[in-house]
Specification:
about 75% helix, 6 helices, about 200 residues, about 0% strand, mainly alpha, Ferritin, globular
Length: about 200
């Protein structure tokens, strides 16, 4: 696929100076890119398996937006003259190592809920860091704008499920929240992410 097909910049004037963003930050952007892609693929699989029209629409939209976020990170990295790399170490892969593969819709939504809360926190902390490149700032803001809807629809879905089986929902979300704390510690060490107070 050509750069034009991906809407990637091809002119030198569209690129940032080569040394503006550190290799460590490019690695973090690649992690964001790969995690968004992985999450989008998981949600897409759930949409494929669902039978409820409204749920299919929500899962499909959410999946598509995660795929777009991955594309936006790809474009951002390219504009910074960085290199996109194959990344198999994603938030979701780390979660699977700790909790196991999410199979049911509840497990996927519980994982997604915990992930969405964490990614919002991480992106906001990143945005508040000093000297963040303007291209990165623009992408952070763009992604965060979409996350509001993700959190809202997932919160509504979980609230409805709690009416049916509060214990089951709390247990699923709790398992992923415990894994999230472990993942957050590891990511803070690997990428120098700050944690909120």
């Amino acid at each position: 696929m050509s750069n034009d097909a991906l809407n990637l910049p091809v002119k030198a004037r569209d690129r940032a100076p080569a040394c503006v963003v550190s290799d460590a930050e490019v690695s973090l952007l690649n992690f964001y890119r790969a995690s968004a892609l992985h999450g989008g693929l998981i949600l897409g699989q759930m949409a494929r398996r669902s039978c409820e029209p409204e749920l299919i629409a929500r899962l499909t939209r959410h999946s598509a937006e995660e795929m777009l976020h991955s594309l936006w990170w790809t474009e951002t990295i390219a504009r910074l003259s960085g290199c996109t790399k194959a990344v198999t170490d994603t938030y979701h892969s780390r979660c699977v190592e700790i909790v196991g593969t999410p199979i049911s819709l509840l497990e996927v939504i519980a994982l997604t809920s915990v992930f969405e809360h964490r990614i919002c926190e991480c992106l906001q902390l990143h945005l508040n860091e000093p000297d963040v490149h303007p291209i990165v700032v623009a992408t952070l803001r763009r992604v965060l704008a979409d996350e509001r809807w993700h959190l809202r629809w997932i919160g509504e879905w979980l609230m409805e499920e709690r009416k049916i089986n509060a214990q089951k929902v709390s247990s699923a979300v709790g398992r992923y929240a415990i894994a999230d704390r472990e993942i957050c510690e590891a990511l803070s060490a690997a990428y120098g992410l700050r944690k909120s107070a």
